[in-house]
Amino acid sequence: MAVQIGPDDAKRRTQRLVYRCISELLIDEAGRLVAAHERDFIRAIIHLAVAQASRGGSDEGQRAISVRAIAQSLGLPYETTRRKVLELEEQGYCRRVSAQRVAATDLSIYEAGRGPTALETVVAAIADLKTLGFSLDQIMPAAGAREPSSTPPGEGTVRNLLDDFILRILESGVGAHGSMLDAVVFVALMNANAEPITHDPTMAWRYSGAETPPPDSLRRPATIAELAQRLSIPRETMRRRISHLIKLDRCMAVPGGYMTRVEFMQAPAVLEGGASVVHHFGQLLGHLRHEGLDLNAIPPRVTAEGAAA
Question: 192 near 230, Cβ under 8 Å?
Fold first, then answer.
């Protein structure tokens, strides 16, 4: 039976529980995308932004985006963005529409090698939440006037909504962490630390709230090699980012690897960012529901033996 709590404090009291499941989705998607771009995180995210812009609009001009707009949206230096866009052009991932505007070329190139479909990715996150006894209504917006579609959404529709959600999360992480890369590295470390808790219904609910972080004794240290592999970035890059986070007192070295500092996890900007991620995920679910995805028909995750996990 789903655990029910009052509507006024639902998001606050379940923020960490939802965020852990969503962060797994984010890390997996980021890792697959970066791997497709020769482990270049910045180039991968810029391509994601170009591809997402190219899905909208009714003509070529509306489907293009300026290099400056990409830089501003992603919080990147203009020159870095310009250089990465040139690399994407050289590799055939995007093309020049005007002096300053580019568009994605064949989106099938972008989709290739991404692993699970967008629908499978979203369904897995929903199934994980249901396995924990979580009611999706606690984070979803109230149903609008528009009736849900009677036809399930296609992969293109789900991918569009999912990639928009991922971009919003990455952009929102800049404020608290200084850059998208450091935000993703911190989330990957925090997610690895919380692995013993994430899918355990008892502990997941015990440490579900924004004000109830799990104690260090229940968290698992993560290694540089593990984090680098998860995000598909070079090990030396991961080492530098972790060293940077240690200098900022956001994580610490412990026997067996590294762990995020609870004090930074409790920082207002980090908690606000987590609440924003949960809010955007609720919006994603609402959009998918309107597009015809039957959220009620998605069962909890099951084990190999066929029982609920």
Answer: yes
Boundaries of every domain in the chain? 15-34+122-297, 44-111
Calculate mean pLDDT across residues 95-102.
89
The owner of tokens 């919380």 is 194
Question: pLDDT tens digits for 138-149?
Answer: 898 876 545 666
More confident residue, 10 or 216: 216
What is the CB-side half-sphere exposure of residue 271 using CA atoms within 13 A? 16
User: What is this structure's pTM?
Assistant: 0.88
Q: Is the pLDDT of residue 31 over 80?
A: yes
Detail the DSSP E strand segments found in 11-114: 65-66, 94-96, 101-104
Residue 104 β-bridge partners: 94
Nearest to 199 by CA among 13, 12, 10, 21: 21
Instruction: Give, for 178, the enclosing helix (H) or strand (E).
Output: none
User: Between the CA atoms of 51, 53, 54 and 58, what dihedral angle is there, to the nearest 10 degrees?
Assistant: 160
Q: Across residues 97-126, what is the average pLDDT?
A: 79
Q: Say which residues have a Cβ less than 8 Å from residue 177's Cβ, sequence separation at least 6.
A: 183, 186
- Burial of residue 56, with CB atoms counted within 10 A of its CB: 0-12 exposed, 13-18 middle, 19 or more buried: exposed
Give 96's strand partners: 102
232-261 residue pLDDT tens: 999 999 999 999 999 999 999 999 999 999
* CATH class of the domain defined by 44-111: mainly alpha
Mean pLDDT of the chain: 87
Contact at 8 Å (CB) between 146 and 129?
Answer: no
Distances (CA, A) of 99 to 64, 102, 196: 11, 8, 51
CA dist list (Å): 217 to 89, 193, 213, 247, 263: 49, 10, 12, 23, 15
Q: In this predicted structure, what is the pLDDT of residue 83?
A: 96
* Single-letter amino acid, residue 260: T
